[in-house]
Amino acid sequence: MPNIQEELETKLALGEPTKYKVLLHNDDYTSMEFVVEVLMHVFHKSLHDSEQIMLEIHEAGKGVCGIFTYQIAETKVHQVKTLAKSNGFPLLATMEEV
């Protein structure tokens, strides 16, 4: 029986995962205090950072809350939606590829 050797060249190209920024959007109904609470509890921002981001959202119409991998960004968007709905606010969170 002949001895057959196969040589396989396998190269794994591991790159950085695609990142997504999570955005909160301004509306006329959600209170600034609630936005600050969401930023502190969902995104683990300090009070100072939360207030700065909230002001950016208020003035520019939207603001970046963080940059995450797809699954984490999707989870954060869902957490914001659930929290806002349970508190009677229409706060919108979206995600965009960086």
Automatic annotation (TrEMBL):
One of its GO terms (molecular function) is peptidase activity. SUPFAM superfamilies: ClpS-like. The keyword tRNA-binding does not apply. GO terms for biological process: protein catabolic process; proteolysis. Keywords: Hydrolase, Protease. Residues 16-94 form the Adaptor protein ClpS core domain. InterPro entries: ClpS, ClpS_core, Ribosomal_bL12_C/ClpS-like. Involved in the modulation of the specificity of the ClpAP-mediated ATP-dependent protein degradation. HAMAP family: ClpS. Binds to the N-terminal domain of the chaperone ClpA. Belongs to the ClpS family. This is ATP-dependent Clp protease adapter protein ClpS.
